């Protein structure tokens, strides 16, 4: 059987029952849990009640530009990610590749609808936001020495603007919404107060709690401790 199992975005109300079931039926014990909040930016907070097009994101200070992330940026992004692993760079490369593909599809939204954006100063990548393959935003980061310049806020605003422009264009042309639905969403670790405050300041709302939980075989745990 499996030696480990991971549950992603697990409703905290289910944790006790799943923990008991994993112990009784699968002889597995909880190895790690990361408590998170689910935050969403709903249409009413993105400006869907306003006239088309929605309000553009803020302009950056001189010398700073918003750009698409490229696959070549994955190494730097991965090196800063708290949860990096031996395979995480490939995950990030796939996320950026999917974002570039969506940006290349054209249509409304423009820069940002793919969800993987960065800020460059003097040619150097100094801030970024990525979209996971499940559609959630994350990996928000600004390099030391470039913080408190509003870069993360500008990137999130740009993505929201692009998404809302695309959504309103679909509405105006009587087209079906895409499979991602009408909301932007993100999972933020409970103790990451800085990110929570940033998202809330931009109109995001905490709507649920969710855990990332891993279970390992009790036999594996015993052998590792033996």
Written account of the structure:
- The protein has helices spanning 15-26, 43-46, 74-80, 88-104, 151-172, 193-201, 218-225, and strands at 4-11, 28-41, 64-68, 117-121, 124-131, 137-142, 184-189, 205-217.
- A hairpin with a 2-residue loop joins strand 4 (117-121) and strand 5.
- Helix 3 (74-80) crosses helix 4 (88-104).
- It has 226 residues and is of the alpha+beta class.
Secondary-structure map with pairings?
Blueprint: E1 4-11, H1 15-26, E2 28-41, H2 43-46, E3 64-68, H3 74-80, H4 88-104, E4 117-121, E5 124-131, E6 137-142, H5 151-172, E7 184-189, H6 193-201, E8 205-217, H7 218-225
Antiparallel strand pairs: 1-8, 2-7, 2-8, 3-4, 4-5, 5-6
Q: What tags apply to this protein structure?
A:
alpha+beta; 4-stranded antiparallel β-sheet; 8 strands; 35% helix; globular; disordered C terminus
Q: Give the radius of gyration.
A: 20 Å
Mean pLDDT: 82
Shape: globular
What's the order of the H and E elements?
EHEHEHHEEEHEHEH
What's the count of strands? 8
Helix content: 25-40%
Parts with pLDDT < 50 across at least 5 consecutive residues: 47-53, 173-181, 220-226
Entry summary:
With 226 residues, this protein is of the alpha+beta class. It contains seven helices and eight strands; from the N terminus they run βαβαβααβββαβαβα.
